[in-house]
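User: Please predict structures.

Assistant: First:
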Amino acid sequence: MKIGIQLALLALAAILAYFIYSGIQDKIDFRDLAKERREVVQERLMAVATAQKEFKTEKGRYAANFDELLTFLNSDSLTIVKAIGNVPDTLTEVEAVELGIVIRDTSLVPAKSIFADGFAIDSLRIIPFSDGNEFKMKAGVIEKNKVHVNVFEASTKLENVYKGLKTKNENVKLDNLLKVGSMTEPITTGNW
């Protein structure tokens, strides 16, 4: 009977060890997957910020929505101005251009050339891992230090980033946002 109790306790200890190991491993797996997903979404948001900056350079404001931004990327051009020649130390660039020492060459390149070949521009609005959900985007003008400043914000909730992952015991606030830009501050960086 003593051997039977010892074997039962040994089996119970093995089962408990398995559950402890499994619980710890699940937390490690979630942390790794969550980090990987956040990085992919952050890269996509930074691509949105890059596109918005180029849009603002050409149009003088940020795109109000993805339709406007994607139309720009797919069918518009960027103006590239190159200065040919060297500006002497005694002159400003404007003076050097006026004297013909420096020549400015203007050319147009497709707006989508800001991204590497093969980049799927139409996927810019889609939140990775979210089954096709889209980022929220807005743009406008705010007053900052008595100056009107163009701003934009593209964002998503963490619930879209972690869709399909078990978040129940992970102390994750699914309503928190991952975003780039701000509607209250003139910034184009992310909140991470």
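Second:
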Amino acid sequence: MNSEHIVRRLALAAFAASWILTFALGTGQPAEAKGFTAAAPGYRFAFPRDHGPHPAYQTEWWYYTGHLTAESGRTYGYQLTFFRRGVDADAVRRNPSKWALNNVFLAHFAVTDEADGRFHFAEKSNRAGVGNAGADTTRFKVWNGPWTAEDKDGRIVLSAVAADRSILLHLRPSRAPVIHGRDGVSLKGREKGQASHYYSLTRLETSGTLTIGGRLDTVKGLSWMDHEFGSNQLSEAQIGWDWFGLHLENGMDLMIYRIRRADGTIEPVSSGTLLLPDDSVVHLPLEAIEYSVRDAWTSPVSKAVYPSRWKIAIPDHRIELSISPTVTNQELVTTQSTKVTYWEGSVTVKGVVGGEPVAGAGYVELTGYAKSMGKVF
């Protein structure tokens, strides 16, 4: 091994150590002490500005999930997520070098092949600088290596490739952005700064191509995008969350998140958002949501035990839903990026709304079952 290879490997090792410590373990200091801004009430969203990055906040992510149907009739779920984690808000001021470690960028790409019952995922990690990864401040574009999400003439184009899997998708919003929470913040706890600024594009008409195992399919479907940013969301007493993003065929969209505490209770500020067919938005406090788990699944890899089927009801709106995974094993063990093991998967929905039968589809995210997420986010 020559000296150039040794230097390169040492540099990569130093980088890996820095983002593991920064992203997965934290520094022991409050985000505000490192120069980051806490999410606070009164934030007013403005678009397209808020589609882009918010470097004043320590943690930010752009989450794309969706369901695709090929011309052959095969069905798929997909996830493409971009994370930005601020290391030190003042790093660039102190060191203007392009290699200054001010942000770490991570990404996850997954495809659920529902016909074969198989789940595939890949991950990336890069520091900002010299174009390896980043988020554009002049127009909407986030990227990590060749994986990208960017605006092109009013449509969002997603591109990712890993091994024998790839997507090239065009997403067209059919609804305006939906702001979650109240007064510009989605609360995650009662401590100062335990909140995020959070909105979704809940209905993105989707078309493009998906390749898996050498088979290229032309696909159409429906996607959901979450964009969230903040600096101090979870406390040590909070171990993780259960998140649901559901499309119903009657035109309703439903987001629910439940933050689980170490003592087995649910954080009282957990909540949801119901988007009605006429585009009106209803904030759902925790007490408005009835929730029960009907099954469980144990991962053969992490040994974590995840809930696997659910019943959710919103009595005030006469909504009763049964939710089931399309594939049981949709666990991501991200040893090369966020160091977080979580379940994120495609689900189907059946139920009744206002006495009428309804079907739908969505995505569910389950964190903190393999290891507590407290103080990670």
